[in-house]
Design a protein that fits this description.
The chain contains no helices and 11 strands. It has about 110 residues and is an all-beta fold. Strands 2, 4, 5, 6, 9, 10 and 11 form a 7-stranded mixed sheet that branches. Strands 1-3-8-7 form a 4-stranded antiparallel sheet, with no helix packed on it.
């Protein structure tokens, strides 16, 4: 079955960086677009970034353009989210999505 496992979250000071990873299994990863979403405390889950199956096309939410970078390694069945210049408002649980399935999420907390 499809499994998505996020990692790389943590507590970081504002201005810092993190790289989130999502390891996929149970499907042909290289043929599916992948997405990252985030859910701030008490709020709805929101789209963050999208990458095409080949990795040559990306889309970002306006709120993260210029600070977030999505990438993938199809040989490792892994999608990444590089987050730079972190802000307190980036505090959220970050989820990856592929083949309409969700991982369990990884918590990112940014202190001011």
């Amino acid at each position: 079955q499809v499994q998505l496992e996020e990692s790389g979250g943590g507590l970081v000071q504002a201005g810092g960086s993190l790289r989130l990873s999502c390891a996929a299994s149970g499907f042909t990863f290289s043929t599916y677009d992948m997405k990252w979403y985030r859910q701030p405390p008490g709020k709805a889950r929101l789209f963050v970034a999208h990458i095409s199956a080949s990795g040559d096309s990306t889309i970002y939410a306006d709120s993260v353009k210029g600070r977030f970078t999505i990438s993938r390694d199809n040989a490792k069945n892994t999608v990444y989210l590089q987050i730079d210049s972190l802000k307190p408002e980036d505090t959220a649980v970050y989820y990856c999505n592929g083949k309409n399935q969700w991982g369990q999420g990884t918590q990112v907390t940014v202190s001011s």
